[in-house]
Structures are given as C-alpha cells and as structure tokens.
C-alpha cells in the first residue's frame, strides 16, 4: 500500500545505530575503544557520521546499541549528543548489552541487538526503523531512502553501494531485477552477480535497512524463536524477506549528500590501519572527495573548549609550519614542520621535528629532532627526541605495528618497550 501522507517521513522514524563491533582489524587502535569510537578527521569519531546523517535527515529519535569496550564510546555520546529534548518528542538512548532478555545473554548478532530492546523501541511508537552501522564514513539523506521504502511498498529497503563486481567479494551482495527488487542475497560470494544493464558492477550491502516498526518487531520475534539462527540481519533476516516478502535495493548514489565540490559518492569502511590512514590523509587534498567544510550538512560531535592552534619560531631550520595539513585546536607547532598530515586536538610538535603523512591522535607529543613519516600515532603517545620512523622498514617492523603498505601504527606501550 502506498502511503500518501504529507511532510517528511523522518519525523515518524527512529534511527537505531549498531555500534558494538570489535574492530579487530584496526589492531591496537581498538584495544581500548570500540571501532565506532575511533577518532577520525581531526575532531570527530567514526560514529558521528551515522548520527549526523540521522539528525540532518530530520530523525529525532535515536538509539545506539553498544557492547565491546564501550566506555570511550558512551562517554563521547554523553558529552556530544545530550542535546535531545523529550518535550520536543526527541530521544537519544544508549543501549549497552544489559541482558534484558536473559541474565546471561549478551547481544548475539545485529538482529538480537535490536530484539533485546524492542520494549524501548515500541514505547516511542515510531512508524519506521532505520537500522544503521556505526562504523562507516559517509554523508547520506535517509529521508530519501524512507520515501523509496514507502513508495515501493517494500518490507525492507536495503542501502547498497555500486562497486566493481569483483571488488564485492567481501560484502553481502544483492541480486536485483530491473526494478531493483532483490531476488537473492549472497554473503561474500566468490563470483558476485552483476547489476542488470551494468554487468561489471554489483550492489553491495551498506548495512543500512529501513522497515516499518511493526513488521520488524514481528520478524525479530520469529527469528528469536528459530533454532540455529545467528540472529543477524545480513545472514538471516534479509534472506528470509527476500524469499517470503518484498525486499528492495536503495542505491547510495541517489541519496548521498554532496557539496558542489564533491564529485563522487563517498563511502569508506575504515576497518584496517591502511584504510584508516588513507581516509584521514585524503582530507588533506586541495579538493578532498569528502568535504567536511560543507555547512549545510554538518558532522556533529563533542565540541571541546580549546584554544586555537599555534605556530611559533620563524628561523631557518626551526620554523613552525604546516603545509597541506589539517591542524586542530590546542595544537602547538613549535619550530617543527608538518606536511600532508592530520593533527587532532592538543598535539605538540617540538623544534626541528618533522611529520610527513602522519595521522596524529589527540594529546601526542613529538620530541625534538624526531622524523616520522607514514605513521598513525595513538592517543597520548610521547615520541622521544630523535626518533626516526619511516626510513628503515626492517627496524620499523621490529619496533611497531607495520602494515604491508608501510604504514606504522605506534602506541605508548611500543614506545615504552624501546627502553627495555
């Protein structure tokens, strides 16, 4: 049945963000924090992109399901996302795995993370549920996806990326007909199905789903009673709907938010150290593929009260400078040189130090005469005077986490081990 209501659908929707992932491929960056809580872009966290998309789309009820190493994430959400007001029919709920269904049961899968909180969801009585992954970098207007869901009378609408066919082997892939109705859902296929009319392209799932709430609740209850289910949207619920209902693909390119300077539909899974380093450094390009300076679609976050960045000393060989770089508040570049790098809040770069292609998380301190290239520094790392990284691959690999492409991830325990 086609819904002919007037006004935005987002006001009758709840966004539910799945933010419990371990993020183990980010190695030591997720030793103390969940992947959605990892820093990105100079001042934000990864989860801020999904949350900002929901807020900018007009959704005013949001829930965030957390699980592994959630303290850093919960603290960020409490500090940066506490402006929703119940008297305006707004809500923001942080939903740790709290054994609401069973005293011994944590979230068993993505679907179970919603099922265990159905009572909270139904109390708000949203007509639609927008299920989101909390660990991707992109800008998207979910209102357009909601409109397609209603117009096509779908049981589920699945957000999809158009990717080269043989690059889709690591995704859940949609096999669709000419109307983008999903005829099969294949998890990580060796030979992904092509798109009708675009045989060299495939539709890969973004982990974004739209449902009517009542339909989703019934589906989750059925799945919870099904022996052997892995309680997962991609593995269980979506294939069930494809077989027994109507599942429709929504192409990201039709709802991606782009400024006049953005030429591509930008989406990144920054799930590896290399991908994380590359996506951050992409922001230093003269015209980056992701425009964080677009004020009409802001990325909301916890805004720390900090002084401006500062550059001091103007002597040949000892000049505080940053070229093709992003430098956040409370950074002091004191006689050091920063090139094609991204510095988060509170970084100190001391005299004669040099950074090249560096992603430096908050409150790091770079000692005098240090030279670092192609690195990611975890929060609070104190680089000793004279340390050189990025010039001797074998030495780097013995001391730090070095990827196959030559990016070195450096943590404070690695630095402390240099003295032992």
UniProtKB/TrEMBL annotation:
Domain annotation Glucose-1-phosphate adenylyltransferase/Bifunctional protein GlmU-like C-terminal hexapeptide: ranges: 307-410
Annotated EC: 2.7.7.27
Superkingdom of origin organism: Bacteria
Top EC class for this record: transferase
InterPro entries in the cross-refs: ADP-Glc_PPase, ADP_Glu_pyroP_CS, GlgC_bac, GlmU/GlgC-like_hexapep, NTP_transferase_dom, Nucleotide-diphossugar_trans, Trimer_LpxA-like_sf
Keywords: ATP-binding, Carbohydrate metabolism, Glycogen biosynthesis, Glycogen metabolism, Nucleotide-binding, Nucleotidyltransferase, Transferase
Sites marked Could play a key role in the communication between the regulatory and the substrate sites: 67, 106
A single MF term (Gene Ontology): ATP binding
One GO process term, biological-process aspect: glycogen biosynthetic process
Keyword hit for ATP-binding: yes
Coiled-coil segments: none
Domain Nucleotidyl transferase: 16-284
Gene3D superfamilies: Hexapeptide repeat proteins, Spore Coat Polysaccharide Biosynthesis Protein SpsA, Chain A
Chemical reaction(s) catalysed: alpha-D-glucose 1-phosphate + ATP + H(+) = ADP-alpha-D-glucose + diphosphate
Pathway: Glycan biosynthesis; glycogen biosynthesis
Binding-site residues, alpha-D-glucose 1-phosphate: 107, 172, 187-188, 205
SUPFAM superfamilies recorded: Nucleotide-diphospho-sugar transferases, Trimeric LpxA-like enzymes
Family of the protein in this entry: Belongs to the bacterial/plant glucose-1-phosphate adenylyltransferase family.
Assembly: Homotetramer.
Listed PANTHER family: GLUCOSE-1-PHOSPHATE ADENYLYLTRANSFERASE (PTHR43523:SF2), GLUCOSE-1-PHOSPHATE ADENYLYLTRANSFERASE-RELATED (PTHR43523)
Function: Involved in the biosynthesis of ADP-glucose, a building block required for the elongation reactions to produce glycogen. Catalyzes the reaction between ATP and alpha-D-glucose 1-phosphate (G1P) to produce pyrophosphate and ADP-Glc.
Protein name per its UniProtKB record: Glucose-1-phosphate adenylyltransferase
Gene giving rise to this polypeptide: glgC
């Amino acid at each position: 049945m086609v819904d002919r209501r007037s006004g935005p659908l987002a006001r009758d929707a709840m966004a539910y963000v799945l933010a419990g992932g371990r993020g183990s491929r980010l190695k030591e960056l997720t030793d103390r924090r969940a992947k959605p809580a990892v820093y990105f872009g100079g001042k934000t966290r990864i989860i801020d992109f999904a949350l900002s998309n929901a807020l900018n789309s007009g959704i005013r009820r949001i829930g965030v399901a957390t699980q592994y190493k959630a303290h850093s994430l919960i603290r960020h959400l409490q500090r940066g996302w506490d402006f929703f007001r119940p008297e305006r029919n707004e809500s923001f709920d942080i939903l740790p795995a709290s054994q609401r269904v069973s005293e011994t049961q944590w979230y068993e899968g993505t679907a179970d993370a919603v099922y265990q909180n159905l009572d909270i969801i139904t109390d708000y009585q949203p007509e639609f549920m927008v299920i989101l992954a909390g660990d991707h970098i992109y800008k998207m207007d979910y209102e357009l996806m909601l409109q397609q869901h209603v117009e096509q009378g779908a049981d589920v609408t699945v957000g999809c990326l158009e990717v080269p066919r043989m690059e889709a082997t690591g995704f859940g892939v949609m096999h669709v007909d000419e109307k983008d109705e999903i005829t099969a859902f294949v998890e990580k296929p060796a030979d992904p199905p092509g798109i009708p009319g675009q045989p060299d392209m495939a539709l890969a799932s973004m982990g974004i789903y739209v449902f009517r709430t009542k339909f989703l609740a019934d589906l989750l209850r059925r799945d919870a009673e099904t022996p052997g289910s892995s309680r997962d949207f991609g593995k269980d619920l979506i294939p069930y709907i494809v077989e027994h209902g109507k599942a429709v693909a929504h192409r990201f390119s039709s709802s991606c938010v782009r400024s006049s300077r953005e030429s591509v539909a930008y989406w990144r899974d920054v799930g590896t150290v290399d991908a994380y380093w590359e996506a951050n450094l992409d922001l230093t390009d003269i015209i980056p593929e992701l425009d964080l300076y677009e004020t009409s679609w802001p990325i909301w976050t916890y805004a720390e009260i900090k002084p401006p960045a500062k550059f001091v000393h103007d002597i040949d060989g000892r000049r505080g400078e940053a070229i093709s770089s992003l430098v956040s508040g409370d950074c002091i570049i004191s006689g050091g040189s920063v090139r094609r790098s991204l510095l988060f809040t509170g970084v100190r770069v001391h005299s004669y130090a040099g950074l090249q292609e560096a992603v430096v998380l908050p409150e790091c301190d770079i000692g005098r005469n240090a030279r670092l290239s192609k690195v990611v520094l975890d929060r609070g790392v104190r680089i000793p005077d004279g340390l050189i990284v990025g010039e001797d691959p074998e030495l780097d690999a013995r001391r730090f986490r070095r990827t196959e492409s030559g990016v070195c991830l450096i943590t404070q325990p690695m630095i402390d081990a240099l003295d032992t």
